[in-house]
Amino acid sequence: MMSLLDALATAPEAASLKQLAQETQLHPSTAHRILAAMTAARFVERQDAGSYRLGIRLLELGNIVKSRINLREVALPFMQTLHEKIGEAINLGARHDDEIVYLERTSSGRSLVRVVYLVGGRAPLHLTSLGKLFLAADGPQKVREYAKRTGLPGKTPHSLTTLLALEKELDKVRRHGIAYDDEEAELGLKCVAAPIHDDEGHVVAALSVSAPADRHDPDWARQVRETADEVSHALGYAGPRK
């Protein structure tokens, strides 16, 4: 049954019994018997021409699973693994209107820098590496609207407080799939973040590593991106659509 479901999932269109039997290396009579049982249970739909495709019951079950997924619970084990590797604070954030909300944080215990944003805390999108990922996903027009709404307030001399500076930064984010906070929210603190996608490819959250500027390691970009990708896959993301 599982091999038939996999074969139907990879078939671009409805598949014939002959095709499915060949793909799964099942005897045609065996494949037909299993397909009949799955059709009765609505896991598979039988077309008039004697071909088969995945059924609506799978969509119903998928929506149940999706509704029960807790982003924080899914991400936390991956965050803890990354934290153990690099020994610095790992942050999980999601967008709420024009701000980032911090959903979870693994504390490094090493940082002498004051922690500004704790779990439940908020920050303007343009001041954080997490928030820049959401702005980059928005596109230029929505970024201009965001700038007009908020006025792009700054917190340090490094904050991006003009639309031109923010647009240049977001172009880099789109090219590299990574965002940075170079002492823009707090002097002495640097962050690097990567996006988390849901099963439909939308950016639903982001992970970041934050640490004092003098401990910043360029390799963290690769590590946080790999970890964010692992969380995305756990949420059902299969990668960019071709």
Q: If you had to describe this structure to a student in words, what would you say it looks like?
A:
With 242 residues, the protein is α+β, with helices and mostly antiparallel strands. It has 9 helices and 9 strands. The protein has helices spanning 2-10, 17-24, 28-40, 56-68, 71-86, 129-138, 140-150, 163-176, 220-234; strands at 15-16, 44-46, 51-54, 89-96, 99-106, 122-124, 179-182, 189-197, 203-212. It has a 6-stranded antiparallel beta sheet with strand order 6-5-4-9-8-7, sandwiched between helices. Strands 1-3-2 form a 3-stranded antiparallel beta sheet. A hairpin with a 6-residue loop joins strand 7 and strand 8. Helix 2 packs across helix 3 and helix 5 runs antiparallel to helix 9. The two termini are 28 Å apart.
What is the secondary structure topology, with strand pairs?
Elements: H1 2-10, E1 15-16, H2 17-24, H3 28-40, E2 44-46, E3 51-54, H4 56-68, H5 71-86, E4 89-96, E5 99-106, E6 122-124, H6 129-138, H7 140-150, H8 163-176, E7 179-182, E8 189-197, E9 203-212, H9 220-234
Antiparallel strand pairs: 1-3, 2-3, 4-5, 4-9, 5-6, 7-8, 8-9
Helix pairs in contact: 1-2, 2-3, 5-9, 6-8
What are the salient characteristics of this protein?
9 helices; 9 strands; 242 residues; single chain; 3-stranded antiparallel sheet; 6-stranded antiparallel sheet; alpha+beta; 21% strand
Task: Give a short summary of the structure.
The protein is α+β, with helices and mostly antiparallel strands. It has helices at residues 2-10, 17-24, 28-40, 56-68, 71-86, 129-138, 140-150, 163-176, 220-234, and strands at 15-16, 44-46, 51-54, 89-96, 99-106, 122-124, 179-182, 189-197, 203-212. A hairpin with a 5-residue loop joins β8 (189-197) and β9 (203-212).
